[in-house]
Specification:
Length: about 270
């Protein structure tokens, strides 16, 4: 994971701003002002990022918040408990036999409690988020190009990281607070790894009775709408020659594609719908 992370950063070092950046005369915002303005003046921030792309501070804050929640979650629940619950779901799905499952379960619990495994999980989470942000930025770049806009990769990556910062940072902080308050028995070792801050329509459905409606509902949350809104604002102001209508079209199309993929995965692996 460390090698992958280093390789990705090495590749990103070759991404350059356009030489004829006409907006470079606009003074760049400081790191602190960028972080603050994404919460209350996102349009101004993304216009500034169009002239002076910057993604590392936002990504580092996201990485720290995600890592803090993951470490706290493992400490509260136990790495062995999480591994055992995961294997139990695999057994329920019939992917492996019960005889093999018992041996695999015991080995998974032992391995999960080693320091190397726990560090690897933390590093893997950060690398996973970096890959996710790079993928999202690539999709933004293609979407803008399809609708005749102008955007380079660093601008797209800046929009991706800063648009994701407020919703995911808020979700992680609220989840961390809830994790420290609620009883341990009320925490699900698999589902709640993604966060304990539940503000979605999935609360209206029972997973066992309406699994796909439950998955659809969990995809429509306050945090998802917040992210979608910031993405629209980011594309509108972070790209050149892109109208508000096209920004909406790109953002909603990517959201719909993501939703279809989630529903497809849920249909293929129904035992993991909790």
């Amino acid at each position: 994971m460390v090698l992958i992370f280093g390789f990705l950063l090495y590749v990103l070092s070759f991404a350059k701003e356009p030489e004829n950046n006409k907006e470079a005369a606009v003074p760049p915002l400081s790191t602190g002002r960028r972080i603050l303005k994404v919460f209350y003046q996102p349009s101004l921030l993304f216009r500034n990022l169009r002239a002076h792309p910057s993604w590392i501070p936002a990504f580092l804050i996201l990485a720290v918040s995600i890592t803090a929640y993951n470490i706290a979650f493992v400490k509260r629940i136990g790495a062995g408990t999480i591994a055992a619950a995961t294997i139990d779901k695999v057994l329920e799905g019939g992917f492996i036999s019960d005889a093999e499952g018992k041996e695999i379960r015991a080995e998974a619990v032992r391995n999960a409690e080693t320091p190397v495994a726990q560090v690897s999980k933390v590093v893997g989470g950060v690398v996973g988020w970096l890959v996710f942000m790079l993928l999202i930025a690539s999709l933004y770049l293609m979407g803008v190009a399809m609708f005749g806009g102008d955007m380079n990769f660093l601008q797209a990556l800046s929009v991706a990281t800063y648009a994701a910062l407020p919703p995911f940072l808020t979700q992680n902080l609220v989840s961390l607070l809830v994790l420290l308050i609620i009883p341990r028995d009320n925490i699900n070792p698999i589902r709640d790894q993604a966060g304990l801050a539940r503000m979605d329509l999935g609360l209206l459905f029972t997973p066992a009775e309406h699994p796909l409606l439950y998955v659809l509902g969990t995809s429509i949350s306050v945090f998802a709408i917040y992210w979608l809104a910031l993405t629209i604002i980011g594309l509108r102001n972070g790209a050149s020659r892109l109208s508000a209508g096209y920004s909406w079209a790109i953002s909603l199309s990517l959201w719909a594609i993501g939703l279809v993929l989630v529903l497809l995965i849920s249909a293929l692996f129904p035992t993991f719908i909790i």
